[in-house]
Specification:
By secondary structure, the chain is mainly beta. It is 11% helix and 37% strand. The longest helix has 16 residues.
């Protein structure tokens, strides 16, 4: 290697080791924003808004679900549909094959239930999510249902339920598309609702859009534990 090249290399090494490292760090800090890549802030997942596990009567067995069937003291139960009062509570907390749950088999029309927090609306925007344990028979499926603060009732295109066993599932509310729902007949109306305001949801629940077939394996939906993750919004 020519002596000139060796000399230049030696000078470059000397300069590298004599310039303070802080100077390089400062150059990085002072670099234009367009030249530096910064990690995007991660969204904050909302906390648990409520959990409901149902409460069986001392006598046990199968009977119509009532306000006394709700284990969470902060929640109110609402029933929808012409035969909504036929939704049954059955099962036992000690039986993993038949846990305490609601059952739609005796509903002769579509039927639904919702929970209403007594003190708060819930904000289901952002990373809000819902977790539930379900089992179904026939072609039945469980769809999410919400009632907004302005009274609008919506049903989501999400459908849960396994024919084989109790299944815990979870979904992001942001992934759901919504249709208006007639709260009495429980039939969908109109077109898809684009960008509904889910920042103040009054009630959250689930609807079975098919009539039940009675006892036996014909067609029905079971809903066990329900968890809703969203931000509480005080009722005015």
């Amino acid at each position: 290697m020519p002596r000139r090249c060796v000399l230049l290399a030696a000078i470059a090494c000397l300069l590298f080791w004599t310039i303070p490292f802080d100077a390089f760090a400062q150059q990085i800090v002072d670099a234009p924003a367009g030249q530096a890549k910064q990690a995007a802030p991660r969204g904050m997942r909302p906390p648990l808004f409520f959990e409901e596990v149902w409460k069986q009567t001392p006598a046990g067995g199968e009977h119509p679900v009532t306000a006394e069937s709700v284990a969470n003291p902060n929640l109110e139960l609402k029933l929808y549909g012409l035969s909504g009062k036929e939704i049954q509570l059955t099962g036992s907390a000690q039986d993993e094959n038949n846990p305490t749950h609601v059952w739609t088999g005796l509903c002769t029309t579509p039927c639904a239930f919702t929970f209403r927090d007594k003190r708060n609306y819930v904000d289901l925007t952002g990373l809000a999510r819902i977790r539930l344990v379900t089992k179904v028979s026939g072609l039945h499926r469980v769809h999410p249902m919400v009632r907004l603060a302005d009274g609008t009732v919506l049903v989501g295109n999400r459908a849960d339920g396994s024919l084989a066993d109790w299944i815990e599932s979870e979904f992001s509310v942001a992934d759901v598309r919504w249709l208006r729902l007639d709260p009495e007949r429980l039939v969908t109306t109109g077109n898809w609702v684009e960008h509904p305001d889910l920042s103040r949801v009054d009630e959250i629940g689930f609807v079975d859009l098919m009539p039940g077939s009675g006892h036996g394996p014909g067609g029905w939906s079971d809903v066990d534990r329900v968890e809703v993750y969203g931000k509480a919004v005080k009722r005015s």
